[in-house]
Amino acid sequence: MKPHPARRLRERVRSATSIALAAVLAMLAAHAAVRAPGAEAHRIRPDPVDVNAAGPDELALLPRVGPSLAAAIVADRGARGPFRSLDDLDRVRGIGPATLDGLRPHVTVGRAYAAR
């Protein structure tokens, strides 16, 4: 006796769904394994980045800073002069209190520019 066609269809759909789900999970795991070490390793620095000396590529590696915000920091520094304190970073469009708090452990203004 043959199984009912609807039952065979359900079994095929279940099997295909399981295979698709396993494939998606495997791809996500592979993506996380490939991306995580490189993505985090280049952001961890033993010393803070001097926002008055760093270029846009170095600034873009900081947490909460991407290429456009890094370019804005460099442009503001060029137009308005060096940052005398970390609080001066809030003059850059795109840097608010939360971003500034996230950056504090990772950046410095350098001794030559610090307010006296």
Throw out a few tags for this protein:
4 helices, single chain, 53% helix, DNA polymerase, domain 1, rod-shaped, 116 residues, mainly alpha, 2 domains
In words, what does this structure look like?
This protein is mainly alpha-helical. It folds into two domains: about 1-40; about 50-110, Photosystem II 12 kDa extrinsic protein (DNA polymerase, domain 1, Orthogonal Bundle). The protein has helices at about 5-40, 55-60, 65-80, 95-105; strands at about 50, 105-110. It has a two-stranded parallel ribbon. It starts with a helix and ends in an 8-residue tail after the last strand.
Helix- and strand-based class? mainly alpha
Can you write the helix and strand succession as a string? HEHHHE
CATH C-level of the largest domain:
Mainly Alpha
Largest sheet, if any? 2 strands, parallel
Low-confidence stretches: 35-42
Average pLDDT reading:
84
Helix content: 40-55%
Strand order of the largest sheet: 1-2
Number of helices, counting only DSSP H or I runs of 4 residues or more: 4
CA-atom Rg in angstroms:
25 Å
CATH topology of the largest domain: the name is DNA polymerase, domain 1
